[in-house]
Every structure is written in C-alpha cells, then in structure tokens.
Design a protein that fits this description.
homodimer; about 450 residues; alpha/beta; FAD/NAD(P)-binding domain; 24 strands
C-alpha cells in the first residue's frame, strides 16, 4: 500500500457512544503520534452521543429533558474537528474499493472504516402495519425520538392507561418501573421466566418485586397478535390469554445494523454482529465497536452479544487510539451488568457478573453454587436492607466463576468487587478473605459478599 | 512433647470479635479434624461479641438498644460448648509453664493460649482524677458501658449542651456526627489536620463537611487541660485557645492490652501489639488476633496497627481453624477502611485503600497520583451526587498503589473494587479497563472510579 496523499481519511458510520468515542480518541492520539487524520462521521439519525440507557428514566419523568441525555452535541463534536454529517444513511460498502454508498447515492471514500452502527430494536410482524411502521400506541425504547414519542403517548393515554410490556429483560423491567412510577397499570409478557440473565433463585425475586409493585406477569408466553381499533392497539393476545391494552412497549431485543456489509468477508456472528479484536480491528482498514459487535468473554473465551453502553465507550476508545497509532485495548469482559426495579417502597438492585451455571457447565467446569442471604449494612443499623447473593466457583480450581446479586439500596454496585476478582482470575477464597471495607452503615463485619463466597469455599 | 491426657486445653483471653471467632471456629474445625478441644474463654468485662463500631450510632439514637449491638450472648456461646468466664482478668502469664494468673490469684493452665485482649482507649492525664478514673462528663467510646454512660450524659446535659471531641480520626468524626445529629454543639480538636488516614485533598473535604454541618474545628492543636467545677468538666484548654464545654469525648486512639505478657519473648511492636502469622501463630502454643495485634500490609510488607473489627473476625477465624488442624489463613490486608459523616443535608462517605503517598515513597515507589471529580450516577439522574477519587500508581510498574474516595451516597463502597485490584496486585490499567457495572442510576458509562484510574494511566 502506498502512503496516502494528505491525511488518512477515517470514516465512522454511527454517531453514538462507540463511534464518537473512537472519533475523539483517534484525534487525541493522533496529536501525540503525529498522524494526520481527517475524521468524518456519518449517522442516519438526527442525534449524537445520547444515553439510550437513560431513556426509561426520562420516560418516567426523572430526567428533565431529552437534551439532558445528550453527552455532547453535534456542535461540540464539530468544534473538536470532526466532520459530522447527520441524516446520512450508509446502504452499501465496497471494502476492497474503500467506498461507502449512502441512501442518496453519494459515494464516500475512506482509508479506514469504523463501523459503529449500533442495533435497532427488533420489531415483530404483529406490531407492524403493512408499510412496516408500527401500529398506533405501539413503540420501542431505543432512540431519543422513541422517548419523546412515549412521553406524548403517556400524556394522551391518561392516568388510567394500561401498558403491556413485551419482553422481560433489562429494558422490559426498566420500562415496567417507568410505567408503574407514572401510576399506570402494567402487564409484562415474556417468553422465558423473566430476567433470564439471572439464575432462577434471583429472577424469582425480581418477579416477586414486580408483582409486589402492582405489575401483572405473564411468563413463558409469546405474543401472537394485537386487537386494533382501526390502526390503534386496544388489546394483546398471547398463547394462552389476552387482555386490553392502551399502550404496548416492544422490548424483545435488538439486532446489529450491519446489513450494509452483506457479502463482505468479515468475521460475523449469526445475528450479523462483528467480532473485532481488542483494538477494534475487524479486517485490514475495517474497525468496529459498540452494539453492532459481539464482545469476547474472558472467562470462557466465548463471543457473546452484549450491547451495553460501557462496552461501546471502552471499545470505541481503544479503537480510536489504536487506529491513530496507540496501543489501548478493550481486552474483553466478564459479563457484568446492573439494573434496578424501584417503585414506591419496592427497591431492588439487580446485578450479575461472570458465567451462569449453564455457561460454566458448557465450559467444562464443575461448578458449585450457593445462595446466601444477608444485609447491606450491620443488622442493627437503619440502613440495613436484605440482600441475596449467588456465588459460583469451580470445585477443582476454586476459581470464582460467577456472582449475582439482588437486594436493597447499596446491593447492586457490590457486583463490581466480584467483577474485579473475575477480571484477575481470582479464587472464591480471594473474594472471601480479601480486605473489603467495613463500618456499620455500609456492611457487616464480614461483608455479606464475602460471607457468600466463604460459604461456597467451605463446600468445595 | 508427649500427647496430652484428655482434650487439648485452649484458653482464649478476650471474649469479643477475635476471641469468640477463634473459639467457635476451633470447635467447628475440631469436629472435622477429630481433635478434642476444651475451650475456655476469659474476659475481664461483662459483655461478649459486641460491635464496638456500632456504639456511635447507638449514641446517636439510631440503634434501639445496646443489646442490638451484641452479636451473640454469653448463653449462646456457652450453648456452643464454650466455657465462658466473664469478670475474670488475666494479670500475668507464664508461657513456659503454660499458666495464666487472674486478678483474684487463680492459676489457669493451658495447652494453647489465644490472646485476644483487644485494646482499651488511651486516656491522657488531663482527663483523669488522681485515682485514675475520668472526670465527670468526660468519657471514651469503646465499650457497651461507655455507650450507656454517654446516653445518660446526653440526657442529663440537655439540648443546649456543647460537646468537645478530642481526636479527629474515624471515631472522632463518627462521634461528631452523633452529637450533631442529636442537635448539640460540637467542637473537634485534633493534633493533625483531621482524618490523617486520607491525603490532604480529601481530608480537606471532610473538614469542610464538618464545618458545613455546624461543627467547630480546631486543627493542629493539642489539648492541655480542663476547667473543672469540683469534679466536673466545664471547659477545655489547648495550645492556642480554650472554650466552654459540657461534655468531653476522648477519642485519641487505643493501645493493645498485652501488659500481662510483659517479659515474654514474643514478636511485639513498640506499642505492645503482637505480630501473629496468617494462621494467628505468635509462638509455640501462643496465638493472637484482633485489636491487640498489628496486621501485615501486603502492599509493602509492613506491620501496621489497624485495630478494625473486620480484621479481628477474619484473623480470629483463621486462628481457630489453624489451631484445630485446619489451614485457613488471614493473608494480610491492603489497608482498606470506610466511614461516613452524615448530618442533615450533608452526607459524605469516606473510604481509603492501599498506600498513602508517604507509604509509597517509603517503599521505594515512584508514585503518580491524581484527584478526579465526577458523579456517583449518570449526571442527568436524580441519584447523581458528587464524588472525588484519588488514585495513585507506580510510574514504572503501573501497579495500582492506593485509592481514596470522598463523596455522596454510593461513593464509599466503591473502595472495595479498588481493594480487590490491590489484593490481586493489579495495575491502574486493570482498574481503568475492567468490566464494572453501568446503568444510569448507579454510574456513568465510564464508571467514575475507572475514569479516575484512566486519568492516572494516561500520565504514567
């Protein structure tokens, strides 16, 4: 390859967490390494760098304005020297010829391509009109426009509205919280047992909290269709039942937006997700990060699809740095995640890290797991709230394999300590005996996470 | 040594966290290993297994009763097969002859001695009457009896009382919180700059919070004497000033209760603290754990005096197990601690782990440290509160050396994640890039602890 004349043309497709982290870091690193970069970012939408994770809380009325969710505006990106072009959809790529084609037929050349296209929500056929658009009062929760539409729908539907949430994952639970906090009726319908990223002992507790907060749960059921009044939903049918509904939230997952790469010879999962290395490299001159990618789980060296904002930002940053001659790496993850369900008196913090029992068995481990109940603070303190911690370790190597937590205020972020042990490849004994902080408002003298680990250690 | 006739006589001196953890664990392990143990516990006081750390919260009125602080009663210990003798003070030991002498002249023989005598509060001469007892309305905060006496004193002194707290460490700050929560006037007098276990940038924030909550601070000053009305305190003098006082709390430290071992050839620090190995062994047939001991800091292999309840329980448990033929070990610590200062609108969580800058320099490191400010949750969430995080790493090895945190709700327990990295000997890059949990109510997309680490990593 001959040296390019002029600056290296970096074209980033997608202007959210991964893409903009990559763009900014590339420019920062280039100043250090002396590379000359011309960074262009294309996005089919109208917004940049917003927190999709914050949308349920905006919908709940806790966040003042959608603008609050925008970390950096288009103007701020441009001021940093990025040629940001919004409303530009990339529909095809010629990786050999190093060109992209946009929806309007424009051809954009690149030296380095960064794919950060994210993943739109999956919308089942029953939710769509013939023209592909969604029925009235049916929506997803993915973009700022979705959030704004939901605020309008809530206002129009009134205080007696009943919301059916289809999907029992993180988004499903968060939107159920949103609707319950608004005082609306809520039904959650899910194919599985709800919060399937947790072991049964813990997802049962989340389900109980949903019910305690007034939600109706329909588990193990698939939605089969809607009742419509003209074009607007009035009810939902599932295999085994039906009910009236004023609003329907579809939260059954998202799919990588990599269709424009069809036919390209790139490492890709069955769902279309790319598999970049720790530096974000997918192929020569092609990079990727964020929700359009799988991430490598260090514990069992498996590629898994975990479209989380924190991976997008970290991998994007490593990508931008590496592209500009740096060496930063996003060296995989340990499958950590957190959410909450908090309505009135019901407050549950929900977190996981590491392998599930099924993951561990698939990886050839001999897992020993135990659920431990305790309190988030010394039992005699007013701060003490119940917490349940599931810990799993390998019988032979004693390595910590996974930890899951469901509990009151202060429970959730305890998962980070377990994640740090997993990151280091530590044992359940490390977790049980290491030096964690204790004072009565914060913990028991043996921190409950360590009691949970110790009880497993005693059974190996 | 010939095999003993009958069970091994284990005598534990001290019936609080370390001693009772050791006693119970020894009996548990003995059932597994088939050892025959006769466990006797002697304590000069009237209470067992109480949370000294909880006493300030009991004094504040947050804990209903002193009994709530008792983890296990004397009856429960006896029911577990422990011969518990309260009100028995050990005044001398003959380690060669394997006997103890009590205050009443009784001689108690042992095969294995466990020293878990703790550490009474240091009381300066100015606080004492000629007979050694404390002046009226002057007290320490160490035992359940102390706590009960304070509740009486608070009740007698009335709502307008002014409390002078001598000492600006953990206990000093906690007692200041107690008195302020009770609506009393508070002055804190300390020799140093207050919270000297923190770097200046952070202890300054604690001082500012104390002042914001209405306390008067007298830094860098030593108390020189009291004004007395008859036998009762009415004022406090220090080098540079004086003020009226209705109550005086002495919280300037504690000293290991190892006087009865004077003359024994045991590894002992200048303050009289013992130095047991990870199994609690001090010498043949002599074991120790808890506040009468120093603990080994793994990071620089130094013995330091850190009389904390969590070390007492962990080391006691390892001791009991090892004494009965097990292999559990308390393999040192990384100098983690936490407290809070919470009065009205002022809520600060305060935590540290690892080395101070001075420690690091003494250990030959080339430390790079930086303070980072951020929020405990995504900035747009109502849960977001300010947090300041100090991170220090070694320039050459990039190893994480220390982390300190001062911030709002949820700030404090973040220290555990840093402690886990220190425990594993990880780098500042590990902390910056590892997989910690993110959701808007709990963190920013780059967890603030990781941002703080990343900023240091960028400067190495």
């Amino acid at each position: 390859m001959s040296a390019p004349l002029g600056p290296t043309r970096v074209v980033v497709v997608g202007a959210d967490a991964a893409g903009m982290s990559a763009a900014h870091q590339a420019l920062r690193t280039a100043r250090r390494t002396g590379r000359e970069l011309a960074v262009t970012v294309l996005d089919r939408g109208a917004h940049t760098s917003y927190s999709a994770c914050g949308i349920p809380y905006w919908m709940a009325g806790e966040v003042g304005s959608g603008d609050d969710l925008v970390a950096r505006t288009a103007e701020e990106h441009r001021a940093a020297g990025i040629d940001l072009r919004l409303g530009v959809e990339v529909v095809a790529a010629d990786l050999r010829g190093r060109t992209l084609t946009t929806g309007t037929g424009e051809v954009v050349g690149f030296d380095e391509l960064v794919v950060a296209t994210g993943a739109p929500a999956v919308v089942p056929d029953w939710a769509r009109r013939d023209d592909g658009s969604l029925h009235g009062r049916v929506g997803v929760v993915k973009t700022l426009d979705d959030g704004a539409a939901w605020l309008d729908r809530f206002a129009a539907a009134g205080d007696d509205a009943h919301v059916v949430v289809v999907g029992g994952g993180y988004i499903g639970v968060e939107v159920a919280e949103t609707a319950l906090r608004r005082g609306l009726g809520v039904t959650v319908i899910t194919r599985g047992r709800g919060m399937s990223m947790l072991e049964d002992e813990l997802s049962d507790r989340v389900n109980a909290a949903l019910v305690a907060a007034g939600a109706e749960l329909v588990l193990g059921s698939e939605v089969t269709g809607l009742d419509l009044d003209g074009d607007t939903v009035t009810g939902v049918h599932w295999d085994g039942g039906s009910r009236e509904a004023d609003l329907v939230v579809v939260a059954i997952g998202i799919l990588p937006a990599t269709g424009f790469l069809d036919g390209a010879d790139l490492p890709m999962a069955a769902n279309g997700a790319l598999r970049p290395d720790p530096h974000g490299r997918v192929a020569e001159h092609v990079w990727a990060a964020g929700d359009c990618c799988e991430v490598r789980r260090r514990l069992d060296d498996q590629w898994v699809y975990r479209p989380l904002g924190t991976y997008a930002t970290k991998h994007g940053r490593a990508l931008g740095d590496s592209l500009a001659g740096g060496a930063l790496a996003f060296d995989g993850m340990v499958d950590t995640a957190i959410t909450r369900f908090s309505v009135g008196e019901v407050h549950l913090e929900i977190a996981r890290t590491g392998l599930s029992r099924a993951d561990a068995e698939a990886a050839g481990h001999d897992p020993v797991a135990l659920l431990t109940e305790g309190t988030t603070a010394s039992g005699y303190m007013p701060e003490a709230e119940p917490i349940a911690i599931w810990v799993m370790a390998d019988r032979t190597t004693r390595r910590l394999l996974g930890v899951q937590v469901v509990g009151g205020h202060g429970a959730g972020k305890r998962i980070d300590t377990a994640a740090a042990v997993l990151w280091a490849g530590g044992t359940v004994d490390d977790l049980a005996w290491m030096d964690l902080s204790y004072a009565p408002p914060f913990a028991t003298a043996w921190e409950v996470l360590q009691v949970a680990a110790r009880r497993v250690a005693e059974r190996l």
